[in-house]
Amino acid sequence: MLLTALMLTGHALDGMAQDIEANGIFYNIISDTQVAVAPAYYEGVNHYEGCIILPERVYCDGVNYDVAAIEPRAFWQSRVTEIQIPNSITMIGDAAFADAEELTSITLPLGLTAVSRYMLAGTAVSHVVLPEGVTDIGKGAFEDCTQLRTVFLPVTLQRIGEGAFGYCTNLNEVYSDAPTPPLTMGDDAFEGCDGIHVMLPDEATTRRYLDDPVWGDDDLFTLWIDEGLAILPTMQQEHLGQNWTALTLGNSLAYKIYGPDGYLMAITAADRYFLPIGALSTDYLVVPTTLMYDDEELQLVATSAPPTAIDEVEAEKEPQLSIIGMRGAVRIDGDTRGKMILIYDVYGNLWYEHPANTNWISLPGPRLYIVRVGNTVRKVYMLE
User: Strand order in 150-153's β-sheet?
Assistant: First the structure.
């Protein structure tokens, strides 16, 4: 991806000037009321790193600017590990996160209408939801995302660009709510991939995908009718200083986050979602979703509260368990004493139920399982 990204630049990035700097993020003014997130690339290094929560507005010289866009290559080759993008942003430029090799988790804004060229290429993102309204996935958008396992495609999606998922060698699940098979531009949108399970909303949609020359390729795709996940998700909260509560979702599911007045704030499959801490406690609704189905019976309530209240929640957390899929087995590490292990397939069928007296459980593969140990739930991918 390095050569591709350099070709996209057309000029050197070193020494680029920005109009505003706030809390370590640089912006360029693009109108009287709007700014765009700009690169921080100096002396051959992009200086953005770690967890970044972009704001909806920044203040400068008496003006409150809306953060409306992310410029091309803004986080290219950075050391960012996770990023939450506000709904004020409606445009993300080409290669905005390309080759940010440590980036594992992203929440995209609800107003996004297109995934730009090479936007997340070469990152370590594992689970991505594209919000409703996205119609196009650009050329090479997820190219070489070798850790990408699950993608949620919205009802509005129409086109997938050349090489968009090229060499996403671990891509296992695609949840597609698009009623018509998205047009693949070129014959290699999924080059280097195989064994992808595609979840679809109903039988009629499945027949349309089967009749499509790309989506009907049974060497590449296996088509299923989505029936939701009959398994309770888990959520933990972590207090981050005075400003944020982190919701650790971590089940490889998608979630809709609703604000206190019932408005939709985000759709995300990120490992964590960040809520602001105000002076008063505020409740947010977290609803598991496949985009095709919202499971309101399994919804959770998250409370953003001042630090003392958050500390009480943290005191009730269970120790974290590691649950991973191996070749032919599930491996569980951590304290499992007194807990039950239950293992389901994606349709809620129970495959294994037993008190936790072993850390290795043999199961047939290749297959996707949902493993529950006590109150900890994880998706795992079983290889042959």
Answer: 127-129, 150-153, 173-176, 196-200, 221-225
Domains 2-225 and 322-382 equal at CATH topology level: no
Distance CA 246, CA 236 (A): 8
- Answering whether pTM is above 0.85, one says no
Listed by start position, the domains of the chain span: 2-225, 236-315, 322-382
> What does the block give as tokens for 36?
């765009």
Fold of 322-382: Immunoglobulin-like (2.60.40)
C-alpha span between 250 and 329 (Å, rounded): 20
Q: What are the tens digits of pLDDT across the range 132-154?
A: 999 999 999 999 999 999 999 99
Q: Phi-psi region for residue 250, left (φ > 0), alpha (ψ -120 to 50) or beta?
A: left
Question: How distant, in Å, are the alpha carbons of 153, 156, 182, 193, 340 from that of 160?
Answer: 10, 12, 6, 15, 43
Distance CA 40, CA 45 (A): 8
236-315 topology per CATH: Immunoglobulin-like (2.60.40)
**For the chain, which ranges sit under pLDDT 70?**
1-17, 187, 228-234, 241, 250-252, 307-320, 346-348, 383-384
Residue 107's DSSP bridge partners are 84
Residue 17 corresponds to which amino acid?
A
DSSP state, 294?
B
Query: How far is it, in rounded angstroms, from Cα 260 to Cα 278?
Result: 13
pLDDT tens track for 202-215: 999 999 999 999 99
Instruction: Give CA–CA dist 243/360, Å, rounded.
Output: 40
**150 and 175 in contact (C-beta within 8 Å)?**
yes
Q: 309 φ, ψ to 5°?
A: -70, -40
